[in-house]
Write a structure and sequence with these properties.
Helix content: under 10%
CATH topology of the largest domain: Maltoporin, Chain A
CATH class of the largest domain: Mainly Beta
Radius of gyration: 29 Å
Number of strands: 47
Structural class: mainly beta
Shape: globular
Length: 875
C-alpha cells in the first residue's frame, strides 16, 4: 500500500501494467500512454496529483492471500469508525463497507473503473456499496483518494474515493487455487479462479477475456475462542451473562418469583456462584459466530475491439452471488413476551395439570423460543454492464462515452424467529396461560403444523439499481511557461432506484423481534463538470475543478476544488487542496418507509448512576426510525496540505495533513444523546406506566456537524542489495488526533477521538525480500487502543473502581508473513500466515452482550490463519 512516486511515468506503468501473460504489444503500448489517476479526469504522465492517492497493487493483494476486497481494505489505516465486514449478518446483512476518516460508509464513494455502481440492496440505517460484489481475481489495483472529490465525482465523495481498477486485457489461460484454515482447526477456506483470454489488441484488433471465481469459508463459533468459551464473564470481572430465560426453561412461583426447579433436559445448571444458581441457564456463545459461513461466486467478462477510424469499443460485465448464513442467539422469552402488548405479564403461566407443571398450583415459566436455531441468510446477486466507445486524438480531444447498468438484489431469509400472534393466540391464551397440550423445549411432542406457524420462514427483499450515460473529453488548450494547459469536460445522466420490502408477516408487526426495513423511491440526476490543469511555471502547477449536480428530489448543488503543487527541488514537492463536497440524502432516508431495530441504551431516569447490576443501565429498547422527504444534502469542506519527497528513483515519502468539516449531517438523534436531553424532544421517548422505556421514535434529520483533522504518512522504498536480493519497505499510517462531534445544530462539539470505535491511529508496514524465484514479506498491522466510552461525556466507566482494565480496549498488533516461489514465469506457489503470533482480539466489554467480546471493525477473533495458494498459466 503506497503513495506513488513523484517523478513520472515509470510509477504509473508499474501500477497499470497488465499481468505477465498479457500481450507484449499491449504492454509496450501502455508504457507510452498517459493514464487517468483517481482524483483527476485528466490523463497524465505525472503520477502525483495535488491530492494524496494510495494504491494497492495486484502484487500486494497476492501477497496478502486475500479472497475478498473487504479483507484487503480492512487493514487500510484510513479505514476507521463506521466500517463493517460481511461476517456479521446482524449488522452487515452479509455485506462489507469502507469508512474513510471514520465518517461512515455513506461518505466514501466507491467506483469501479471510475464509474458508479448500485448500492447494496438492503440498506437499513446505512447506504453504501458492498465492496465484496467485486471478484478479487478481476482486480488489477485499487486506488484510494484521501480527499474530497465531489467536484469531479459528485455525491458521497466527502471523505474520499475508493476506485477499483479491473484488469483490462488478458490472453491465455490461467488457473489459481487456494486452501486456508485457522490454527484452531476452523474457518476452513477454499478458493479457485480461472481466467481465459483471446486476441491481441495490437495484432488482432481485439481482446476478450473472462474471469470465473469461487470462494467459500466455514464459520467460527464464538464458543471456540478463549474469551467467549462461555458467557459467564466472571473471570473478566463482569457478571455472569448466561440467562435464566433458557431452553427448555425454569419454573417459579407466580406471586413472588421464587425459583422452584429447572425443566429438563437442561444443558447448563448454574453453580453456586452464578447469577442464577441451580437454574437452567442459556449460554448465548453457543449460538453466536465470529465468522459466518459464506460462499462467493462471480463471473467477469471484459473486452475491447477496434472500430476503425481510431475508435475503440470497450465493455465489461460482472455477475456475482454472495451467500452468508449466520446463526445468532435465539429469542429471549421475557423480552419477547414483554413486547407482545396483548399479554398481561412477561412470563408464561403453566396451569395446574399441564404436563410440565408438577405442582398443585399454577406456576410461572421463563423459557426461550429455541426449537429452531435463529439463522439469517442474506443472498445478494449483483449485475453490472458497461458498454462504451473511446478515441484518442479526435480533433485534438481524447473522448469517451459509456452506458452503465448496475443492480443489487438481496434476499434475506430468516428462520427460527417466532410469530407473535401464534404465541399469543395458540401457544398461550389471553391471560398468558399455556395451552395444556403444548410442551416447551420438546418440539417433537407438538403439532407439526403449529410449529410451522410458530416458526415461519421470513423473506425480506432489497433492491437497488443505477443506470447512467456519460460522456467526457480531455485536450490541451493553450501553452503556459511550464507546459500545455489541459482541460477535461464531462457530463452524466443517471437514474437511481431503491426498494426495501419486508416479509408480509414482519410488515404486519407479526414478528416484533426481527429487524424491519421498508421504503421505496427513485430519482434522476444530471451533472456536468470541468477540470483545468494549469502549469503556471515549470515547477508550479494549479488545478481547478467544478461540478454541477441536479437531483430531481431536492435541487441543485455546485462544488469547486482548487489544488496546487510546487516542485521545490527535483526530488521534493509541496501540494495542497481545498474543496467542497456533499452527500445527497439516500433514497432510503427520504422514503416514507421505516427502519425498526433494537438499541442498547442507559436510561438516565431509571439508571441515574451507572450500575452493572441495574438492567436499565444496559437496556435493549425498540427504536423506530422513519424517513424524511424534506432532507437536504450534507455539506462538507475539506483541505489537505502535504510534502512529497523522492530521495532516489525507487523511494518516496509523503506526509499529508487533512481537515474536514461536515455540516447538516443526515442521521437520527443518537439514542444516548436523546435520553440525556429527553425534555427537549417531546414524543421521541415513549415510556410505560412504570416509567421504563417502551420504545423510541426517531426520524432522519439534518442534524449537527463533524470536524476531523489528522495526518497521513506513506513511505515506500526498494533497493538491490548485493548477495541478498531486492529488499523493500512499504508503509502507511494515519494519525487522527481530533474528531469533534456536535450532535445537533448549535450543540457544543465534543472530541470523540480516542473513544469508542475511534482509535487515534492505525498503521501498516511491510518489509519484503525477493531473491531469484523466491519472494517474501513480513507485514506489521497496528490499531491503537481506545476508551470504552462512546464519548467523553460517558467517560465515567462502570468498572473504574472494580476492574479498571475494562474501561479501555488495548492496542492490537499483529504480523503476517508471505513466502512465494515461482520456478517459472507461469507457475507460482504462495504460503501466507496471517497473525503469526496468534494474538487474540482485544477484549471489548461493550460486545459481551453479543457474546463475541471484541470489535469486528478493527479486530479479528480468527487467530493464526494459514493459506496455501497456487497459480499456473498455460502457455
Amino acid at each position: 500500500m503506497h503513495c506513488r512516486p513523484l517523478l513520472a511515468a515509470a510509477a504509473i506503468v508499474a501500477a497499470s501494467t497488465p499481468d505477465v501473460h498479457a500481450d507484449d504489444n499491449d504492454r509496450s503500448e501502455q508504457r507510452l500512454q498517459a493514464v487517468e489517476v483517481t482524483g483527476s479526469r485528466l490523463r497524465r504522465t505525472d503520477a502525483e496529483t495535488t491530492a494524496p492517492v494510495q494504491t494497492i497493487g495486484r502484487e500486494e493483494i497476492v501477497r496478502s492471500g486475500a479472497v475478498s476486497l473487504s479483507e484487503v481494505l480492512n487493514k487500510l489505516p484510513a479505514n476507521n469508525k463506521g466500517a463493517f465486514n460481511e461476517g456479521n449478518t446482524v449488522d452487515g446483512y452479509g455485506a462489507a463497507a469502507i469508512s474513510l476518516r471514520g465518517l461512515g460508509p455513506g461518505s466514501t464513494l466507491v467506483l469501479i473503473n471510475g464509474r458508479r455502481v448500485a448500492p447494496f440492496g438492503f440498506t437499513g440505517n446505512a447506504t453504501f456499496v458492498d465492496i465484496n460484489q467485486i471478484p478479487i481475481a478481476a482486480i488489477e489495483r485499487v486506488e484510494v483518494l484521501l480527499d474530497g472529490a465531489s467536484a469531479l465525482y459528485g455525491s458521497d465523495a466527502v471523505a474520499g474515493v475508493v476506485n477499483v481498477i479491473l484488469r483490462r486485457s488478458y490472453r491465455g489461460i490461467e488457473v489459481t487455487g487456494g486452501l486456508g484454515r485457522s490454527s484452531h482447526g476452523d474457518a476452513t477456506e477454499r478458493q479457485a479462479s480461472a481466467t481465459f483470454g483471446v486476441g491481441n489488441r495490437s495484432a488482432d484488433g481485439y481482446n476478450l477475456f473472462a474471469v470465473v471465481s469461487h470462494a467459500d469459508q466455514d464459520p467460527v463459533k464464538a464458543s471456540a475462542r478463549w474469551h467467549t468459551q462461555s458467557a459467564d464473564f466472571r473471570g473478566f470481572g463482569l457478571p455472569d451473562r448466561r440467562a435464566p430465560d433458557s431452553y427448555p426453561g425454569n419454573l417459579y412461583t407466580i406471586d413472588n418469583g421464587t425459583f422452584l426447579q429447572p425443566l429438563q433436559p437442561c444443558a447448563t445448571i448454574g453453580d453456586a456462584g452464578a447469577a442464577s444458581p441451580g437454574q437452567c441457564l442459556y449460554d448465548p456463545t453457543r449460538d453466536s459466530e465470529d465468522v459466518v459461513r459464506s460462499r462467493r461466486d462471480a463471473l467477469f467478462v471484459a473486452g475491447t475491439a477496434g472500430l476503425g477510424g481510431g475508435f475503440e469499443l470497450f465493455g465489461d460485465a460482472a455477475l456475482a452471488r454472495n451467500v452468508f448464513a449466520g446463526q445468532t442467539r435465539s429469542v429471549d422469552g421475557t423480552t419477547f413476551l414483554d413486547s407482545v402488548r396483548t399479554l398481561p405479564e412477561p412470563f408464561i403461566r403453566l396451569p395446574v395439570g399441564h404436563p410440565q407443571n408438577p405442582y398443585p398450583n399454577e406456576v410461572a415459566l421463563r423459557t426461550r423460543f429455541a426449537d429452531q436455531p435463529l439463522v439469517v441468510t442474506p443472498t445478494t446477486d449483483t449485475e453490472r454492464v458497461v458498454v462504451g466507445v473511446r478515441r484518442g486524438d479526435w480533433e485534438g480531444w481524447d473522448v469517451e462515452s459509456g452506458l452503465l447498468w448496475s443492480r443489487s438484489h438481496t434476499r434475506t431469509t430468516t428462520t427460527g424467529a417466532v410469530r407473535d400472534s401464534v404465541i399469543a393466540g395458540e401457544v398461550l391464551d389471553a391471560s398468558g396461560r399455556a395451552s395444556p397440550t403444548f410442551r416447551f423445549g420438546d418440539p417433537a411432542a407438538n403439532d407439526p403444523a403449529l410449529m410451522a406457524r410458530l416458526y415461519p420462514q421470513l423473506v425480506d427483499l432489497g433492491r437497488a439499481s443505477t443506470a447512467s450515460i456519460d460522456a467526457r473529453g480531455t485536450r490541451e488548450v493553450f501553452l503556459l511557461p511550464g507546459r500545455p494547459a489541459q482541460l477535461a469536460l464531462g457530463t452524466e445522466l443517471r437514474r437511481e432506484r431503491y426498494e426495501s420490502t419486508p416479509d408480509p408477516l414482519t410488515a404486519a408487526g407479526e414478528v416484533s423481534a426481527i429487524f424491519l426495513s421498508s421504503g421505496a423511491g427513485s430519482r434522476t440526476v444530471a451533472a456536468a463538470y470541468a477540470e483545468l490543469a494549469l502549469p503556471i511555471a515549470p515547477t508550479l502547477e494549479a488545478s481547478l475543478a467544478a461540478r454541477w449536480d441536479r437531483y430531481s428530489d431536492f435541487g441543485s448543488t455546485v462544488n469547486p476544488k482548487l489544488g496546487l503543487k510546487w516542485k521545490a527541488t527535483a526530488n521534493v514537492a509541496l501540494r495542497a487542496t481545498y474543496t467542497t463536497a456533499f452527500r445527497a440524502p439516500s433514497l432510503s432516508e427520504t422514503s416514507q418507509g421505516q427502519v425498526a431495530g433494537v438499541a442498547r441504551v442507559r436510561d438516565p431516569v431509571t439508571c441515574p448512576v451507572s450500575d452493572p447490576v441495574n438492567p436499565n443501565c444496559d437496556l435493549p429498547v425498540l427504536a423506530v426510525t422513519v424517513g424524511n422527504p424534506a432532507l437536504k444534502p450534507e455539506r462538507a469542506r475539506s483541505a489537505t496540505a502535504g510534502i512529497v519527497a523522492e530521495p532516489w528513483r525507487d523511494a518516496s515519502l509523503t506526509v499529508d495533513a487533512f481537515n474536514i468539516r461536515r455540516r447538516a449531517q443526515i442521521d437520527y438523534i443518537d439514542p444516548a444523546f436523546l435520553l440525556e436531553h429527553e425534555a427537549d424532544y417531546p414524543g421521541y421517548v415513549v415510556r410505560k406506566p412504570d416509567g421504563t422505556i417502551d420504545h423510541l421514535n426517531l426520524q432522519y434529520t439534518n442534524l449537527g456537524e463533524t470536524r476531523v483533522w489528522g495526518i497521513d504518512l506513506s513511505a515506500r522504498a526498494k533497493a538491490t542489495v548485493a548477495d541478498l536480493g531486492r529488499v523493500g519497505i512499504d508503509g502507511s499510517w494515519e494519525w487522527l488526533p481530533h474528531y469533534w462531534v456536535a450532535q445537533t445544530e448549535g450543540a457544543q462539539s465534543v472530541d470523540w477521538a480516542g473513544y469508542y470505535e475511534q482509535p487515534k491511529s492505525r498503521g501498516r508496514v511491510a518489509l519484503s525480500l525477493d531473491r531469484g524465484p523466491w519472494r517474501s514479506s513480513l507485514t506489521w498491522n497496528y490499531t491503537r487502543g481506545y476508551q470504552r466510552a462512546f464519548t467523553p461525556s460517558e467517560s465515567s466507566c462502570l468498572y473504574a473502581t472494580t476492574t479498571p482494565a475494562l474501561c479501555s480496549v488495548p492496542a492490537w498488533s499483529t504480523f503476517d508473513i508471505f513466502l512465494g516461489y515461482a520456478p517459472a514465469a507461469n507457475v507460482e506457489i504462495g504460503f501466507v500466515v496471517n497473525n503469526i503470533g496468534n494474538v487474540q482480539a482485544p477484549f471489548d466489554e461493550r460486545f459481551v452482550r453479543r457474546a463475541t467480546a471484541y470489535n469486528p471493525a478493527f479486530h479479528s477473533a480468527v487467530g493464526r490463519f494459514f493459506r496455501l495458494t497456487a497459480r499456473y498459466a498455460f502457455r
